[in-house]
Design goal:
The chain has one domain. The protein contains 4 helices and 2 strands. Strand 1 and strand 2 form a beta hairpin. By secondary structure, it is mainly alpha-helical. Helix 2 packs across helix 4 and helix 3 packs antiparallel against helix 4. This is MmgE/PrpD family protein. It holds the Pfam family MmgE_PrpD_N.
Length: 108
């Protein structure tokens, strides 16, 4: 059995057991946090809006929705736009020297 197959099997077995309540609560907390940060970013983070405007050049419509707006983009573009929003005001792992938020970390 390949490693990929073993990983898929392990995930399927875990899905059948469900999430422990503690993990489920954390997942809900992190989803709510991401949505709230994204909504705040759409209203108050010009850098996120500039990123979305830049990636949207020449793109018309789509099925993916940008959080906090009626703006729709192709799914991959919407995912990128929503990621920009989710990170624009999120400082959970900021590097003080570089003043950047290098990566998403849902486990903090």
């Amino acid at each position: 059995m390949s490693l990929s197959h073993e990983i898929v099997q392990a995930i399927r077995q875990r899905q059948k057991r469900g999430l422990p309540e503690e993990i489920r609560e954390k997942v809900i907390l992190h989803i709510c946090d991401t949505i709230a940060i994204s909504l705040a970013s759409y209203k108050g983070a010009p850098i996120a809006l500039k990123s979305i405007a830049g990636l949207s050049i020449g793109v018309k419509g789509g099925t993916g929705r940008v959080i906090g707006s009626e703006h729709r983009l192709p799914p991959a573009y919407a995912a990128f736009a929503n990621t920009a929003l989710a990170h624009a005001l999120d400082y959970d792992d900021i590097n003080d020297l570089a003043r950047i938020h290098p990566f998403p970390n849902p486990f903090l």
